[in-house]
Each structure stands twice: as C-alpha cells, then as structure tokens.
Amino acid sequence: MARFGMAIDTVRCVGCMDCVVACKTENSVPEGFNRDWIATEVTGTFPTLHMEIRSERCNHCDSPPCVHCCPTGASHVHDVGGVVLVDYDKCIGCKACVASCPYGARFINPSGYAEKCTFCIHRVEQGLLPACVSVCPTHCMHFGDLDDPNSEVSQLLASRNHHSLLPEAGTKPRIFYLT
Amino acid sequence: MQELTITRHNEMIDPLLHIWSWQIPVYLFIGGLVAGIMIISGYFVLQGQYKRNVFSCFYLPHISLLLLTGGMTSLFLDLEHKLYVWRLYTTFHWTSPMSWGSWILVIIYPVLWLNTLIRIPERYQNKVPVFDRLSALINKHPVLIKNIGILNMLLGVLLGMYTGVLLSAFGARPLWNSAMLWMLFLVSGLSAAAALVHLITTDQYERELLAKADNAFLTLELFVFGGFITGLLTSTRVHIDAVKLILVGPYAAVFWVLVIGTGILLPLSIQLLAVNHKVKHTPVAPLLVLAGGLMLRFVIVYAGQYSHWS
Amino acid sequence: MSAYSRRKFLKISAATVTAATAASACTEASATPPAPARRATKGVERVPTYCDVCFWKCGAIASVRDGALWKIEGNPIDPLSRGRLCPRGTGGIGAHSDPDRLKRPLIRRSDRGREEWAEVSWDEAFAYIAKKMHTIKETHGPESVAMFAHGIGGNFLKHTLKAYGTPNFAAPSFAQCRGPRDVGFRMTFGEDVGSPERTDIKNAQCLVLIGSHLGENMHNTQVQEFAEAVGNGATIIVADPRFSVAASKAKHYLPIKPGTDLALVLAWMNVIVTEGLYDKDYVAKYGFGFDQFAASIAANTPEWAYPETGIEPEVIRATAREMARHKPATLVHPGRHSAWYGDDTQRSRAVALLNALLGSWGRKGGFYTPVSMSVPGYPYPAYPTAPAKVDNPGGKYPFAHEAISTGIREATITGQPYPIKGWFVYATNLIHSLPNEAETIKAIQNLDLLVVVDVIPSEIAGWADVVLPESVYLERYDDLNVEWFREPFVALRQPVIDSPDDQKPNWWMAKRLAETLGLAHYYPWKNIEEYLDHRLTAAGLSFDELKKEGIIRGAPQPIFFDDGAPSEFATPSGKIEFFSLQLQKAGFDPVPVYHRPAEPPAGSFRLLAGRAPVHTFSRTQSNRILSDMMDENEVWINADMARRLDVKSGDYVRLKNQDAVVSNRIRVKATERIRPDCVYMVHGFGHTARGLRHALQKGASDAGLITRYATDPLMGGTGMNVNFVTIEPEVTHG
Ligand SMILES: Nc1nc2c(c(=O)[nH]1)N[C@H]1C(S)=C(S)[C@@H](COP(=O)(O)OP(=O)(O)OC[C@H]3O[C@@H](n4cnc5c(=O)[nH]c(N)nc54)[C@H](O)[C@@H]3O)O[C@H]1N2
Ligand SMILES: Nc1nc2c(c(=O)[nH]1)N[C@H]1C(S)=C(S)[C@@H](COP(=O)(O)OP(=O)(O)OC[C@H]3O[C@@H](n4cnc5c(=O)[nH]c(N)nc54)[C@H](O)[C@@H]3O)O[C@H]1N2
Ligand code: SF4
Ligand code: SF4
Ligand code: SF4
Ligand code: SF4
Ligand code: SF4
Ligand SMILES: [Mo]
C-alpha cells in the first residue's frame, strides 16, 4: 500500500504563496483560513543571514494524534496512501484534533467541522498532483509514495539532506524539507 | 537572532491556540466536582450512612445529576457542529479520551440514578411505579446498596481521572503533558466536592468530617502540584517553557493568587482553624475552595492551549 | 503636499452615487454585445485564455464549475507560463468576484473635488465624452487629448484616439519603469531588453541580480528559470540593500549602500579588465571603443568603490572573478524597474557593458535574441497626420524612444509646447504610479475632460469626469498576444464567464466611442471575433484552433549567436559601444561615470519600495483572494534601528518625508534583513479611494511619500528612490 508524502525543496522555494492561493481556489477554502501557509525562518545578523522558506501544511503523520484523539472517527487514515482525512459528516466540532496537532494544521470551518489539507486526495485519485504541487512555479514541491523506493520523493530523500518539522513531537510527519 | 514569520492566520489557531473558552474549564470543573461527589457519596453509602438522613447520601446524588447535566450542556455548547453530536454514540474509539468520556458519562447517569433511588424523596414517592419498585428492591438487598456505593466510588474515580487524562493525552500541548494531571484534577475534584458538602449541609457531623477531609485533600493537592510542576520543570525545553507560563508567565498572577493563594492556602488555613474550633465554620472557606477549583481548570485549559512545541 | 489635501480626493463609492439612471447598454445594433452568455451548465468547462494580473501575459486555462468561475491554472502548452501561473495569476478569479468592482458608467455631476456622481447609460457616457472631445478638437486640436494606457487592453482605445488625431500616448512602464534600462542597453547593443526580458536565466551558470528581486518580483518565466538556475547550482550574486528572497539563494550577498550600484559595476569591470578576464575574442569581434572605455574606468578600483558602496574590495574582486569564470554564461540581470536615482540610464549602460565584457549578449546563459510569429495587423484606414508629440519638446531628453508619461503631465500643467485638455486613462492608476501626486492633481485640474477606464474604483478613477467600467480580463476578448520570446507563439484572450453587471470590454467601448465621434469607418469589423479571425486568417492560422488551445506555437528559431541568430547591433557603429559617440555628442558621459548620491539626513531613512509576490502594484488589493494572502504592507526597519526607535514588529507607525508628507499608518517589520540606512515597503498599498472598501487605508502608499524625483537627463525617467523619511510613532488602539 502506498504511503503518500512530500519532499519540498527549500533551496528552490521562493515563498511566493502560489501553493496557498491554489489550495484556496481548488478546495474553496473559506476567506480568512489556510490549509497551507509559508513559514520563513531567518537566523544570523545583517548581512550574514540564513533564511529558510517552507511551504507547510498537515504532515499526514504516520502516528497522527488527531486521529487518535477523535471521539467519533471523523478523523481517520484513508486507505489510499494513508492520507489523514476528516469525514465532515461525522465531525462534531469538538476541536480535540485541533488541539492535538502540534503543527496547527487544522482549523474549524465556519460550517462547524474540522478541516485541513487532504493532500488533494480527490485529485490524486484521478491521477493528478495536489493543487499546490501542480502550480508551484519553482517546481520545488514533490509528491509521491514514500514506500516506493523508486518514487521521485524517495529518490530525493535518499540523495539530499532533509529534515521534517518537530520530529521530537513523535507524530512521524510525512512532509520533508530538502535543504 | 532568529526571526520566524508564518503567513497562516486561522481563527482560533493563530497566533496562539485558543479553541476552548469557558465551556471546557466549566465542564472539567463540574466533571471533577461530580467525580468528587460520587466518591464521597459512594463512600457514605458504602459505610451504611444512608440510613441516617445525611446530606451526602440524600441530596448530593440529586445535586450531582443536575450538575452533570449542566456540565454536559457546557460541553455541548462548545461543539461547533452541534447537530452531529449523536455521532459520539455510534462508535467507540479506545484511543480517544473523549470517546471514553462520553461513554463513561453514559454509564454515570444510571449509576447516579440508582444512588438517588436508595431513598426517593417523599414528594416523589408513588409517582413512578417503576422507581418505587426499584427502590423497594434495592432496599431489600443491602448488598445492592453496598454495590451502588462501590460503583459510585469507582466511576467517580474514573470520571475524575478522565477530566485530567482528557487534557494530558494531548501531546501537542506541553503544559498538559504530565502524568500528574489526572491526579491533580481528581484531588481538586474531591476537595471541591468536600467543600460543597461543607457549604450546604446542615449536619454538624458531616460538616466537620468534610472540612477535615477537605483539609487533607487541599494538602494533598499542594503536593500533587509540586509533582506536576517539578515534573515539567525537569522535562524538555518546551515543557519548561510551558510550565513557566503559569509560574512566571502571563498566567502566573491568576495561578499564584487565585489557584494557590485564595484557592488552597487561605481556605486551608481558615478550615484548619475551624476544625480546631479556633474560629467558626463559615461559607468563606468552601466558597474559596470551589472558586479555586474552577480557576485551576481555567488556568490549566488556557495556559495549556497557549503552550506549544517549537 | 501643497494645495491638494487628501480629503479632497474624489472617491467613488456606491454610497455616493446619486440618481441612478437606468443603465442599459447596446442600444445600437452595430456593435454586437460581447461573448455569448455562457450557460450555467453542470460540470466543469475549461477555457484557455491569457492572464492579465500583470503584463507578462501567461497562458492560462480557467475552469468554470456549474456556471461559476472556479480556478485558473497555467496552460501547459504556453511557453511563458510553462503550465504554471504565479500566485497573482492563480488568484485572478478574485478580480471577477471582487464586490468592489465598478458596475456602471459614471459621470461626475459637479465640480471636481466634490463627490457627486450619476450612473448613466453607456450611450450617455459616450455622448458626453464625444461632445467634450469635439470642443477640444475645435479649440485646441485633437492632439490636445492624450492617453495613458498600460497593457494590451489599451490597443483599441488607442486606435480610436489615433483616428481622432492625437499622437500623445504614454504609459508609466517607460519613464517610471524599464525606460532607463532599455535606453542603457540600446545605447550599448542597439536593442532593448524588452518584455518579457530576453534573459536566458535558466542556462546561466552565474546570475548577478542588482536589486532585481526575483521571487518577490513574480514575473513568471523569470522566477521559474531563476529556480531552475538555483536548482542547477548556478552561482548567484545579489547586490541589494535588503536581504531579498533572491539574496537568500545567493552564494554572495552584497549589502550595497543604496544608490551606489554604478560604483560597484564600474569596479567589477575594472577588475575584469585589469585582470584580463573579459571575453577578448567577443570584445574584439563586436566591440567599439574598448580602449577608451578601459582608460575611462581605470581609476574605478575596488578600493575606490569600497567607501562608496560599503562592499569590501576582496568581495568585489572575488565576485568579479566568479563572473568571469562562468562567462559567457554569466548573466548580469538588467533589472526592469530601473527608475531609481535619476542616473539610471548610465547605471543600466554599465550593466550592459559588464555583460558585453563577459560576452553574454547573444549567448547561452546570457541574453537570447527573441523571435516572434508574423501576424499582420488589421488593415485599417490611415490615421490623420498629427503634430509632434507633447511629452518631450525639442528632444529635451534626447534618448527617450518612448513617450514620457510625466512629460505629458508637465505639458498639461504648463500648456507647453501646446495645451493638453483631455486625458484618457486606461488601466493605469496614475495617482500611485507617477511620482509626486500633487503634480498629477494639478495637471488634472487643467483638464476639460478626464476619462478613466478601470475595473475598480481606483484613486485615478476618483478624479475622473467619466468613469467607464471595464469587464475584467476573464470576461472579454482582447487583442492577440504576438509575443517576442524564446520561441514564436500567439496567444488568445477570450471570455470565460459573463461580466456580473454592466461592464463592457475595451474593444466595444473603443468601437462605440469611434462611432459616436463619427469615426465608424475606422472599425470595419462588426465585432472582435471578426477582427481576430481576420488577423489570424491573414497569418495562416485558425481562430477555432486558437480558441480551443489558447496558444499556437511557431517553429523554433535560433536565438543565440552560436546557433545562427544574427549578431547585429543597431548602434551607430554597428557594434557594441563600449564608448558612445552619440552620448558624447549629446553632451553626456560616453562611458558611465559615477556620481555619489545624496545621503539621508541624520535620523532619516532612504525610502525604498518593491513587490510582494501576491500583489500587482495598486491593482490587486481589493481582490479578496489575494488580499487574504496579504492585506497590508509593512515598513521594514533594521532590527537595531527599530530598537533604537523603540518600535517593534507589528507596531503601527507613520512615515514622514522630507516635505512633511505623512503616510497612512503602517505596521513595522523589525528585521535583520535590511540595512540601517533605509526602510522598505511593498508598493501599491495605502489606498485612499473609498470605493475600494476592502483595501481602504490598509498599509501605506510609497507613492504618497514620493514627492521628489530625480529626472534622468538622457531619457526623462523619474528616479523615485530619492526620498527620505522619519518614523513617527502612532498611537494604537487595541
Ligand atoms: N511609487 C511607485 N511608483 C511606481 C512603481 C513603484 O514601485 N513605486 N512602479 C512603477 C512600475 S515598475 C510600473 S510598471 C508602473 C505600473 O503602473 P500602473 O500600470 O499604473 O499600475 P497599477 O497601480 O496596478 O494601476 C493599474 C490600474 O489598472 C486597473 N486595471 C486592472 N485591470 C484592468 C483592466 O482589465 N481594465 C482596465 N481598464 N483597468 C484595469 C487597476 O484597477 C489600476 O487602477 O508603476 C510605476 N510607478
Ligand atoms: N508580484 C509582482 N511582481 C512583479 C510586479 C508586481 O507588481 N508584482 N511588477 C512587475 C514589474 S512591471 C516590474 S518593473 C518589476 C519590478 O521588479 P524589479 O525590477 O525586480 O525590482 P525593483 O522594483 O526595481 O526593485 C526592488 C528591489 O530593489 C532593491 N533596491 C532598492 N534600491 C536599491 C539600490 O539602490 N540598489 C540595489 N542594488 N537594489 C536596490 C530593493 O531592496 C528591492 O529588493 O516587477 C515585476 N514583477
Ligand atoms: S508555490 Fe512553490 S515556490 Fe511558491 S511558496 Fe509555494 S512551495 Fe514555495
Ligand atoms: S500534521 Fe497535525 S493534523 Fe496532520 S496528521 Fe499530523 S497531527 Fe494530524
Ligand atoms: S473536531 Fe471533528 S474531527 Fe476533530 S476530533 Fe472532534 S469530531 Fe474528530
Ligand atoms: S495538498 Fe491540496 S489540500 Fe493540501 S495544501 Fe496542497 S492544495 Fe491544499
Ligand atoms: S506573471 Fe503572474 S500575474 Fe503576470 S501574467 Fe503571469 S500569471 Fe499572470
Ligand atoms: Mo514595471
């Protein structure tokens, strides 16, 4: 079974937010909310600076506390690619999953249910790339099966330095940042 | 020098998590209170005190039914997708404390109910034949009564623990990441319940007893706090930062003054004097304890949401 | 800001519209209404078109789902977008759904300065305009009507005005933008850099960016190629007073003192020449006047440049050698917005010369030779002969090869060399794009007619006598985009969805106006489809195919000298002019000479401006999708300076310039990412037009603070980085 993940190349990313805009239009994310976002981390003192720009979203964790804590099973691991999803019809809006995510990846849709990145599973199941990946003008985002050693993501992770976010939180995130 | 900017601006998430406001602390407080009540009342029932017309065995279960309903309402008010609340009861998720909680509450209602049936108030006697028959049945078998007592105590402990475990299960919120939290909430629930009895009962014996018990609970709570704080302080940087929120950070004033000061130390001193008959029993001490217990839930829920990784 | 206070600015807002005359358009049969209404069909329909959120014109495919505009993506067969739009293009659907859009034609019903408007029908609007135009023609001649038009959408209105008889057309894209660069390159290579820039970024092994903030400046192909170059491990060298996104990708970041780039470029050239690192064959073959050039820069050593630029001599040497090592695949980017300090043509010329030394012009990894399809224009009747243009009397700016927008403004104020009494403004917000707002307003007060064609109630629309609401690009046909690029192609813009109200496309307005003016014979076509079909057929292309595909590509042609592209230079010498006799003759430095810029007074900062990736100038702040990404600009202040000023990130402050103009409140970004002697903000915010409900008073306008500008003596460009500001505290409430 596939295990979907992303490898995002921070060397190429320019922080343009195209990924954010595309997610909004593709998924009709309501105004004022984001499923993905840009983090910019600057270290050093002018002019000797280092800057990492990251496009962030739900990490579709291998050990997802948001799924574990959900009392209704609305948050679940989808059979395709192990993608973490929310079944909006089961969600009671208790926000346990929101509190449980160390990345702040979830929010409550104004209609009351928990929402977050779906890895654009509706597109992926049609053989398309997630919207954010497909628009990125710098081609810095890569999506694929982490369990397939021949996939582009696996190859990139095998050949490049990378890190993930808050590995110490124990959630086993599946988005990796190439450096 | 590090500058971190994040473009996300989700309501209730950014810049800091604030998904839960008064409803959850109130729910947790009431949950703890009811847990304490169940333990105390169960204890009295077990001790056969129900034969005497004591407040703890007679009024407390009734009050707790109302309280529990209030607590559940509070929880319900917090839900963002209220019409789907029934979804809680179409499934059980053992990894989810909330799922446990919702089912525990389902069991607690009948158990509390049974407790009230040990003696139906006169007014309500001969109104619902089933209840009368049940009551008669229970009263015929003292073993049943003992078991009701035990069941109340057991479920009380479970409920009290649950209110803490609910939060401590959130690995993402370092302040709640403490194995002491369930104990803290359980002890605090007990002390609040004792204070409630102390406050309302007219029975001199009960009042004395519960005041003494409350003193013990409050003292215990101080130790549990010590454990809770040192536990976090000796953990990772994020946990240290988290506990600093209540020790020296934005929640320190409320914590030290309202939770520790007027919520524990002051009523403890008053009650120590009272049980030693240096001063008279007044409602002041138990009211302070109750308020302190509520503030504890507020501080822990608010500061806990504020606490975060990275 | 003198006589004209901000409060007097005219603003269009729904609330201020009086007496709504029922507006019904299209009473005449001659001009058929725009595209047939698209039915609210179920399912997803995909329509190719090209983007208009900026001037790059990326090929796009819009999706309409159940009759509503859903999303826009890049057209995979488009060589510009390469299937991927920039964030503004992706957010372009917000232009269609913007609730603040202009809806119906408006006519001012009182003196300028009052806010009384009437909604009118299109016929009434045209009748009003035509009457005024007749009067102007009779009293002053048709040349007294000038037009400012930015972008391809202005083509048809320009045609109408040319038919009317005026030669005066300008855009802020010359004197306020790429003019100095294009002239600098023209003086050197005989040709402009053009737009899209002819830069072969993707093949560059060494890319030098002097202020070009690619990644924030989102011109799509350039950014894509920039990422490609970075990914390929190209050496990136960035000179910028601010640690830009591009700087974060650089091997060498040079935190240059603003306004001193010419010194840096001269020093680079000095190193390359004295160390003999230049492309000797190339220079020998194509160069003119090299020896004089070499002599002229002999004193411009890195040690000389150090106190000017703040860049250590070793760094200058190391970067110069690095450039030389990768030649000719070293691209010293010419920039685009080059109207900075008033000496910009000479700076750009120095950049051109540095490229010449590296042999990058015409070479892979440098500058390619753009090619295009041959699509003949529509065979219109000849225009009436018109007098000389008004913007550059007597060739005051001898090397301006396009009209100077600020020159038209000046003529409007002075009445010299002849009066200008009417302005047509199409898709350019002159209040934000021209320096010194007060002068623009003064000129407007001299007009008998100001017509503004816009899609939203912009600041300039607020000053208009007649406001014509245009359909946004997703709702209309436009002229063909016959692009000059790496490969030939032609692109079509076609309607994707209906306009929500009584907005009309420019071609329809242009045709109706011509008809009202009695110039119907200039529009032999019935509607734009006929026009497009005519042009395409003449080029041997199929309109139907273009409608279906959005793009038709032509056969690739050689674009590098080494592959057979012609190595011709349209300079007087027919060579690359290291030494320019024409400049010398006109009294300018034949080889660029550095002059030290004025320093900010103590306690002041130089005001710099630039781009945010999610906005285009002043036009996208009310687009709800894009404003959701960024709804306010910030003023970047060096972290140390911020500490000294006792302000921190997120605080509101106001900026006050040397002429005591105070900005709207703006949030501080206290950051290590900028020098202590300047502050920076994103251009386009701080709207004052009340109809822009969503954008009103959010952030500050750099344009408002640009009361001074330094005019480039070669071509009339307006250097705008010459204003100094202080930081004034703002009392915040909550
Ligand atoms: N202070 C300052 N001034 C500058 C610059 C700067 O950075 N700072 N940059 C300079 C540069 S590089 C340039 S290129 C110029 C750009 O200058 P402009 O082209 O004037 O740019 P905008 O401010 O975006 O104004 C465009 C106007 O067109 C309108 N518009 C948008 N779409 C349409 C349409 O489809 N039809 C019609 N009819 N109107 C439309 C918008 O609503 C807006 O009012 O500004 C220059 N001036
Ligand atoms: N997202 C987005 N992209 C755009 C546009 C847009 O509106 N939005 N507009 C497009 C247009 S028409 C143009 S012209 C371009 C403009 O974009 P560019 O040509 O790339 O840049 P400028 O606006 O000239 O310059 C801004 C940068 O120059 C730096 N700078 C300022 N002063 C100096 C100096 O003295 N020396 C040096 N070395 N650097 C300096 C600033 O810190 C900033 O990083 O952007 C294009 N791309
Ligand atoms: S679209 Fe690509 S380059 Fe732009 S911010 Fe997102 S990941 Fe980075
Ligand atoms: S990132 Fe957060 S929401 Fe996503 S799977 Fe992990 S814990 Fe759940
Ligand atoms: S908010 Fe919804 S998805 Fe999240 S834990 Fe509660 S029920 Fe599950
Ligand atoms: S994968 Fe889809 S849902 Fe997730 S951030 Fe990207 S566009 Fe949004
Ligand atoms: S660069 Fe962006 S805004 Fe400009 S035309 Fe292309 S997609 Fe549209
Ligand atoms: Mo520009």
The number of helices of chain C is: 22
C-alpha termini separation of chain B:
15 Å
Number of continuous helical runs of chain B: 10
Reported CATH architecture of the largest domain in chain C: 3-Layer(aba) Sandwich
Total beta-strand segments of chain C: 28
Strand order of the largest sheet of chain C: 1-6-5-16-15-14-7-8
Low-pLDDT sequence parts of chain C: 1-37
Q: What is the topological layout?
A:
The complex is a heterotrimer of chains A (179), B (310) and C (734).
Chain A: E1 4-9, H1 18-26, E2 37-45, E3 48-56, H2 65-68, E4 75-77, E5 84-86, H3 96-100, E6 107-108, E7 114-115, H4 121-124, H5 131-135, E8 141-145, H6 152-159, E9 162-163, E10 175-178
Chain B: E1 2-6, H1 23-46, H2 55-78, H3 97-117, H4 129-140, H5 142-168, H6 181-200, H7 204-233, H8 237-247, H9 252-275, H10 284-306
Chain C: E1 17-18, E2 44-50, E3 59-65, E4 68-74, H1 87-90, H2 93-97, E5 106-108, E6 117-119, H3 122-140, E7 145-149, H4 155-164, E8 169-170, H5 172-189, E9 206-210, H6 220-231, E10 235-239, E11 252-254, H7 261-274, H8 280-286, E12 287-288, H9 290-296, H10 302-309, H11 313-325, E13 330-332, H12 344-358, H13 405-414, E14 422-426, H14 430-433, H15 437-445, E15 449-454, E16 466-469, E17 481-483, E18 489-491, H16 506-516, H17 528-538, H18 543-549, E19 551-553, E20 576-577, H19 581-585, E21 605-610, H20 624-629, E22 634-638, H21 639-645, E23 652-657, E24 666-671, E25 678-682, H22 702-705, E26 710-711, E27 718-719, E28 724-729
Parallel strand pairs in C: 1-6, 7-8, 7-14, 9-10, 9-13, 10-11, 12-20, 14-15, 15-16, 21-25, 22-24
Antiparallel strand pairs in C: 2-3, 3-4, 5-6, 5-16, 17-18, 18-19, 21-28, 23-24, 23-28, 26-27
The complex binds ligand MGD (2 copies), iron/sulfur cluster (SF4) (5 copies) and molybdenum atom.
Write a short abstract of this structure.
The complex is a heterotrimer of chains A (179), B (310) and C (734). Chain B contains ten helices and one strand, in the order E-H-H-H-H-H-H-H-H-H-H.
